[in-house]
Amino acid sequence: MADIQTRIAADADDGLAPPRHVAIIMDGNGRWANRRGLPRTIGHRMGVEALRRTVQAAIEFGIPYLTIYTFSSENWSRPASEVNELMGMMKRFVRKDLAELHRNGVKVRVIGEREGIDPELLALIEEAEGLTAANDRLTLVVAFNYGSRFEIAKAARKLAEKAARGAIDPATITPETFAAELDTSGIPDPDLVIRTSGEIRLSNFLLWQAAYAELVFMDAYWPEFGRELFAQALAEYRSRDRRYGGLSTRSHSMKAQQS
Ligand code: IPE
Ligand code: IPE
Ligand code: MG
Predict the structure, then answer these.
(1) CATH number, domain containing residue 199
(2) Mean of the per-residue pLDDT values of the chain
(3) What would you report as the CA-atom Rg of the chain, rounded to the nearest whole angstrom?
(4) How far is the CA of 45 from the centre of ligand 2 (A)?
């Protein structure tokens, strides 16, 4: 609660302070390619370029936490050829970009279900997390094989197991102790969630964590995203009025209320 009070005070000026954590649903690779008569694969490849630009921009904008939705637990329902392509790209991304991410002070943290992931990819994920563990310029949270409902169910299961063996009293379970069992434990909640491609839904992304996030939906397809659209989303965020269930603390709306 104290955290929310501090944020309200910080947000009280003309515009919001920059977000501490931005989470992005990188959507629209397939449609971007279709529009050009290209295979979806090309859209995904261009999507990786957009991701590189976005990480650079996040560093430049001084955003401490960036979460990217790279593969959902529901994406397994796509044709095997596309799933294989996406897995291959993930491996290539880690192999190709890990050294540079590390040089740039990026700490990689992967959230999502690890069981059932190709062992080669799992090893790369562990290598990325291990190598970059001490970095602190930008934490890049990679949501891979991620789905919020399963993450929440897993947290419930862990707490139930602790209670069943007498390690905790169920009466002591609070939103804070619950959040500590989520994959995102220790990561601040996202302030801003961006989704590209014009779809207006969360698709099982950070349902618990985004309870008070500002949502920005953009019509651009993900391969078009970069510094400029990122800045546009941040400007939109800055103009929002975060009330957290309370009353507005923004000076302009206070004036409006007084007149
Ligand atoms: C987002 O683009 C990338 C992933 C989900 C992995 P899509 O592949 O969903 O592209 P559209 O939504 O079909 O255009
Ligand atoms: C969400 O996009 C998942 C990722 C961006 C990785 P989808 O394209 O899978 O979402 P839906 O199917 O349109 O809801
Ligand atoms: Mg999509």
Answers:
(1) 3.40.1180.10
(2) 94
(3) 19
(4) 16
